[in-house]
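Sample entry (288 residues):
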Amino acid sequence: MFKRLIQKIKNLFKKDVYDPLPSVIPMANARTSIEEEHDQCDSAFVPMGSVLETEMHIVSDDAVIERDDERSSEFQMGKQLSAIEPDAPTPPRRWIWRTGEVLAQPDDESCVAHAFYQLLLSEPKRQRPALTPVELHKKYLAEDAKKGGGTSILTGARVLKREGYLPNYYWAANAAEVVKWLQYVGPVVIGVFMHEGMRFYQPVHGDYFLRATRERSMGAHALLVHGYDLDMICPDGTTGAVRLCNSWGAEFMCGGKAWLSIADLDFLLGERTSSFTPRACAPMEVIR
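Predicted structure, serialized as tokens:
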């Protein structure tokens, strides 16, 4: 059943399912590599993680993070970001962290493992783990004591911390905190609903957009948010977008990437049900 569902979602998001919007730049002119993406950013900018007070983001008692709710105010991104001094250098209006190779998950529910693995491959650390994504997924399943099925974002972060890759992990309350974390620290893993009515568009710069169309959900999915553009005009009429890296291979959209408006990200992070709460999680750094 799960394999059929994953394949159904993949088929829904194939490039040739929807016609592009008129008057767009042909995809042959679109960005196709992380390096090309990154070259369009302000290369002089230095990530601002170092401006945060070290003692504020070290979790000294592992039992605390295991016991408390994963969105506890004690482990919020906002609390850490509040340590940034008002006179700190201003981040650029656009920034994209390199992600390394784009992963392709099997037809299973290993999206959490692949999203966190992609985080480890990405800047600013760009670390290749000793584990494979499949091996990491098995650890997640064992952590959740399940025979199969998906795992939570909390499990993803908890296991990587236990394996020594992360010293800590924090939770964003909204899209604004995600964007600010991207500006000052690094990429963020999100777990949100994928909607059956989502569509991909080609805006004028020849890239793809993912749209949260507020229709029936096809289930939850984990992705890596690895960039932002505060001045991008989005198909929903809003300004500002984040860059997503999916785990369905480089053939997905533009080299495995797509844009999502900040407004849509805010909606997705607030789309709670009785059985699912969207998450946005990231470490202060990758240490291994």
